[in-house]
Design a protein that fits this description.
It is a single chain. By secondary structure, the chain is an all-alpha fold. It has one domain (about 1-140). It has eight helices and no strands. The protein has helices at about 1-5, 10-25, 40-55, 70-80, 85-90, 95-105, 110-115, 120-140. α3 runs parallel beside α7. It is flat, with a radius of gyration of 16 Å. About 25% of the residues are buried.
Length: about 150
């Protein structure tokens, strides 16, 4: 739920995605491959469910994280400047933000993140590194280092 709240237009959308995720997980449990971690499989289902319910006319803003009467929302607003996740959400692409969240909040391995996001392990490692550098630079008011290649983080 926490992961989906950061990616949803509203709390209700996150709750719907959680319900759909568990329904789909139950429905397709027979297709689960035990070689993978169960949580990686669940995250992948959750990401797909949330993507399916998104509408193109939605504009995502910082105030869409959680409802206005939520204590978490009030806490985030009080420390908005110091909150690394709000900075990450505004600086990074959606996929890279998801990779950062899965790594540092949900404590998934690079391999698990790669499977959950349907990306290569190289993509995951490179973008996690670039995202860390970009966040460090932004939080320290230092311009990020430029590389010869186009960076995927935002």
């Amino acid at each position: 739920m926490r992961f989906l709240l950061t990616r949803s237009a509203s709390r209700a959308d996150a709750e719907d995605a959680v319900q759909d995720t568990f329904i789909n997980a139950y429905r397709y449990l027979a297709s689960f491959d035990p070689r993978w971690r169960f949580r990686t499989w669940i995250y992948r289902i959750a990401i797909r469910n949330l993507a399916r319910q998104r509408r193109p006319e939605w504009q995502e803003t910082d105030d869409t994280l959680v409802s206005d009467d939520d204590p978490l929302r009030n806490c985030i607003e009080m420390s908005e400047r110091e909150n690394i996740w709000l900075a990450a959400k505004s600086l990074l692409s959606e996929e890279v933000y998801a990779a950062m969240w899965l790594r540092y909040v949900e404590d998934l391995s690079v391999k698990e993140i790669s499977r959950a996001l349907d990306k290569s392990q190289s993509w995951t490692k490179v973008n996690l590194l670039r995202a860390r550098r970009r966040l460090t630079a932004a939080l320290n008011d230092v311009p990020p280092k430029k590389t010869a290649q186009r960076e995927s983080y935002g």
